[in-house]
Amino acid sequence: MANSHSKSFFGQNTGIIVSSSSSSDPFMFIHCFKKKPDGVWEKPSYSEGKAVKFSLEEIVMILRVLNHETNKWQCQHIFKDKETSVFFNWEDNNHEVLWINVGKYSKRLNLAQTEILRLLLTHFLDEKIVYSTLQKKRNTDSKKKHNQKNQFQTDKLNIPLDDKNLPHQFNKAKKNPNDTSNLYGYIVGETKKAVLIDFKNKEEWIPKSAINNQYLQEKNVKQKFLINNWILKKLELII
């Protein structure tokens, strides 16, 4: 069983990425992108696009549309006092074209894409119903730290999205230098010249000059950092 999933649906000018970082998370994300006037796609690494988090209950309501039990469903998402209108609806009674509207983003899915989305969300719901409701034992300090991180997660992606999720013709990946390594972590603090990153419960200050990739500036969002090996070895984060 795969623990995380990510599926892209891109057209000529608009695209969406449907993702789940863990079967134990009782939610999923839809991240929307547009092509800019210069022909370049908005990128996750530049904090561009729009991400919305959907609960188990909302996944059920979306599936009612995809299973032809209703023709439309809409809701309002609120994050930092900003409302985002979300609307799923069939174009007509033939149920061959689905429209997904998230704020200013509108994405049209054909019959095959809609069926893939339906199967994906059905899988999400089935596994999350099982694994997100399991009782887990953890000590008080660990639970407190976990809750502190998750309270900032509303409508923010917690699955690492790289620019490779974008259409390949708009994204040419560069090979990582030999003197760098990729590590996942959470930003918990920042100064003008350094970032405090939590690497699996070990917090270390990393100079911004030693980070070689674009990263989200939001705190408590899991993401990838391409960091110079000399600082990682000095801090004993790698051998």
Classification by helices and strands: alpha+beta
**Tally the helices: what do you get?**
4
Strand line-up of the largest beta sheet: 1-2-3-4
Shape: elongated
Strand content: 25-35%
Largest sheet report:
4 strands, antiparallel
Report the count of strand segments. 12
User: Distance between termini?
Assistant: 31 Å
Helix proportion: 10-25%
Mean model confidence by pLDDT? 82
Spell the H/E element sequence.
EEEEHEEEEHHEEEEH
What does the radius of gyration come to?
A: 19 Å
**Which runs of at least 5 residues are low in confidence (pLDDT < 50)?**
145-159, 169-176
Features:
alpha+beta, four-stranded antiparallel sheet, 35% strand
Q: Can you lay out the helices and strands and say which pair or pack?
A:
Elements: E1 5-10, E2 14-20, E3 27-34, E4 50-55, H1 56-66, E5 72-79, E6 82-90, E7 98-102, E8 105-109, H2 111-131, H3 140-150, E9 180-190, E10 194-199, E11 202-207, E12 223-228, H4 229-234
Antiparallel strand pairs: 1-2, 2-3, 3-4, 5-6, 6-7, 7-8, 9-10, 9-12, 10-11
Question: How would you explain this protein's 3D organization?
Answer:
By secondary structure, this protein is α+β, with helices and mostly antiparallel strands. It has helices at 56-66, 111-131, 140-150, 229-234, and strands at residues 5-10, 14-20, 27-34, 50-55, 72-79, 82-90, 98-102, 105-109, 180-190, 194-199, 202-207, 223-228. It has a four-stranded antiparallel β-sheet. α1 packs antiparallel against α2 (111-131). The longest helix has 21 residues, at 111-131.
